[in-house]
Every structure is written in structure tokens, then in C-alpha cells.
């Protein structure tokens, strides 16, 4: 029996998580809010990866695991595969989704999107809307990191949103 959750429910839950951590619990501490949102995503990704790989043999190398994330894992989450995968062959992978579903209803002023990396939220554009959008990306970064961790690949994941709704995960 396959159990699924409506996409609108996931989007609403993500909105509430970001709102509660950014405007409530850690209103004056965006770094703590970001870490907590990412940690929730990590748990989700770890558990989903466990579920989706239960019937599979372990992956033999990093590239095989990344391909699983791009094809099967992403398809389960977003009903589509990653649009583009790039690597420098030194352990860095860039996953590009040209229409990232969780950002499809988000828009920010073009001048606010210039510095869209969420590696450090304080380094993001000064705009509140750009910072809020960046906070939404900690959750999927956590999901990817959790899934890869479960597959035996310790990593750091960051996102870039220089061209909404496109998103790059590194």
C-alpha cells in the first residue's frame, strides 16, 4: 500500500515551519532558525531514503547514489527528475531543477535575487523577501543531505536561487 501526502499539505507545512522558526521561536536568530529547518529536512530525507532504498542493494559509488537522488528520489518527491546534473569529478555535484515546485509560487524583486545563495543567510541580499525565500531552501537542502547521509555519503548541501523558480543544489 502506497501512502502519499497531498503536495499542498507539504507546501503548507513548509510554510508554517519557516514561519514559526523565523518569526516566532528564533525571530532574532536567523542562523539558528536555518539550522533547525535544515535539521528537520535532514530527518525527512534520511527516513525517505531509507524507505525508497529498502529493496535495493547498497550503491557501489557516489555517482550511483547521486543518480538515484536525481532520478528516483526526486521523482518520488516532486513527480519529475532533476533537470541537470553536473560534477567536477572531485566530489562536487550540482543538481539543477529549472522549475523547483516548492518555489513555483514565490517571487522576489529582481534586485533582491542577485545574491541568492543560502550558504550564509546573512550574506543574502538585504531584502526581507529574498531572505525569506532563502529560508525555504534549508528544508530541501536538509532533505538532500539526509538522503545522501543515509546512503553513506557525508556532505554539505547549499542552494542557489538566482533565477526563480529554478534552483541549484550543490
UniProtKB/TrEMBL annotation:
Record-stated family: Belongs to the TRAPP small subunits family. BET3 subfamily.
A Pfam family this chain is assigned to: TRAPP
Superkingdom assignment: Eukaryota
Gene3D superfamilies the record matches: Trafficking protein particle complex subunit 3 (3.30.1380.20)
GO biological process: one example: endoplasmic reticulum to Golgi vesicle-mediated transport
CDD domains found in the cross-reference section: TRAPPC6A_Trs33 (cd14944)
Name listed for the protein in its UniProt record: Trafficking protein particle complex subunit 6B
